[in-house]
TrEMBL record:
SUPFAM superfamilies: FAD/NAD(P)-binding domain (SSF51905). Keywords: Oxidoreductase, Signal. GO terms for molecular function: oxidoreductase activity. Residues 1-26 form the signal peptide. This is Putative epoxidase LasC. InterPro entries: FAD/NAD-bd_sf. Its EC number is 1.14.13.-.
C-alpha cells in the first residue's frame, strides 16, 4: 500500500462510481467520506438514486480485472451472494445485423448480477475499509471555496442540520444529477462544452421464473436492434433461479409495464427466441421503465480554467 500523503477526500454519490473511487483513493487519503442523498437499503433493492437499477447491467472482462485489483476477492463475494457466472461467448448468445454470433468459449468469465446486488456487495466491501465512511440521507448542497476560488470542501444537509466539511479533494460522482456545470459558470470558470446525441432510448425490465426444464440454465441472450427495427433485448440469469429481462426501445417504442403486454412486445424482436422463452416463464416482479432522451459528454478537459480541489 502507498503511504497516505493527504488528509481527506469527499466523494459525492454512493453509486458504483463513488464506491470504486473510494476504494482507489483509500490508499491515498487518511480520511475518505462518501456523501449520499439516499437512505441506503440494508438489503439489495432498487433505490431512488439509482434510476437504472432495475435494468440489466453487464460486465466487460476488463471491469472484472479492475474490480479485483482494487477489491481483491470481490468476484467470489458476488458469486456467493447470488451472481451467476457467464462464460463469454459460450453462455451468452449475441444476435445483431450479422446474425447470431458463433457459440465459442472466449475464456472470459463475468458475473451476471443485478445492479442492487452489485452495489450492495461492493458497498459492504468498501465500507469495511477502516478509513472509509459514509454519510447517507445527506444532501450535497454546494462546494466551499477558499480565497483563490478553489474548492476547499462541501456543504451538506442531513434533515434540518447543515454543516461544512473541509477536504483536500472533492470528487463529483453524482452522474446526471451533477450541479457542477452551473457552479462553474456561477464562479466565473465558464461553460463546459457539452456535445449531445439524441438517442430516444427507453428500458423496461422485470424478473421471470424460468420453466422447470430451464431452471439453473446459465444461458443469456443479447439481441441488438437491426435497422429499421427499433427493438433490442437482454435476457440473463440472476440469483441462480430467475431471469432478468430488459427490453430496449428507440424513438418512443417502449415495452409495456404489465406482463402480458411486455411478453407480447418481444414478438417484434429480430429473432423469436426471447419471446419463446418468456412465453413459458412466470413473471415474478413489477416492471420498471427508464427513459434516456439523449446522451451528453461534459468536456471539463477542454476548459481553459478549472478549480483546484
Amino acid at each position: 500500500m502507498t503511504s497516505r500523503q493527504q488528509q481527506r477526500v469527499i466523494l459525492i454519490g454512493a453509486g458504483m462510481a463513488g464506491l470504486m473511487a473510494a476504494a482507489v483513493l483509500a490508499d491515498q487519503f487518511a480520511d475518505v467520506i462518501i456523501i449520499e442523498k439516499d437512505d441506503l437499503p440494508r438489503t439489495p433493492q432498487v433505490r431512488k438514486g439509482g434510476p437504472q437499477g432495475a435494468h440489466v447491467h453487464t460486465f466487460l472482462g476488463y471491469a472484472v480485472e479492475a474490480m479485483e485489483d482494487f477489491l481483491p476477492g470481490i468476484m467470489a463475494e458476488l458469486y456467493a451472494a447470488g451472481a451467476v457466472q457467464i462464460r463469454r461467448n459460450k453462455d451468452i448468445w449475441f444476435d445483431d445485423a450479422a446474425g447470431p454470433t458463433p457459440i465459442r468459449d472466449a475464456g472470459i468469465l463475468t458475473p451476471s448480477v443485478t445492479r442492487p446486488l452489485l452495489e450492495h456487495v461492493t458497498r459492504q466491501r468498501v465500507l469495511a475499509l477502516l478509513n472509509v465512511s459514509i454519510k447517507e440521507a445527506t444532501r450535497f448542497t454546494q462546494f466551499c471555496t477558499d480565497g483563490n476560488n478553489d474548492v476547499s470542501g462541501v456543504k451538506v444537509q442531513t434533515g434540518d442540520n447543515g454543516m461544512e466539511i473541509d477536504s483536500d479533494l472533492v470528487v463529483d460522482c453524482s452522474g446526471r444529477a451533477t450541479t457542477l456545470p452551473r457552479w462553474l459558470v456561477d464562479h466565473s470558470y465558464g461553460d463546459a462544452e457539452r456535445p449531445e446525441l439524441g438517442i430516444g432510448m427507453s428500458y423496461t425490465s422485470g424478473l421471470f421464473r424460468p420453466p422447470p426444464d430451464l431452471a439453473g440454465d446459465t444461458w443469456a441472450c443479447l439481441m441488438l436492434a437491426i435497422p429499421p427495427n427499433t427493438r433490442a433485448a437482454y435476457l440473463t440469469p440472476v440469483y441462480g433461479e430467475l431471469w432478468l429481462a430488459t427490453m430496449y426501445g428507440r424513438g418512443g417504442d417502449m415495452a409495456p409495464r404489465e406482463a402480458e403486454g411486455f411478453v407480447e412486445w418481444t414478438k417484434g424482436l429480430a429473432h423469436p427466441i426471447i419471446h419463446e422463452k418468456l412465453n413459458r416463464a412466470e413473471p415474478v416482479s413489477d416492471f420498471r421503465s427508464y427513459k434516456i432522451p439523449k446522451g451528453f459528454w461534459l468536456r471539463y478537459d477542454q476548459m481553459d480554467r478549472f478549480p483546484r480541489g
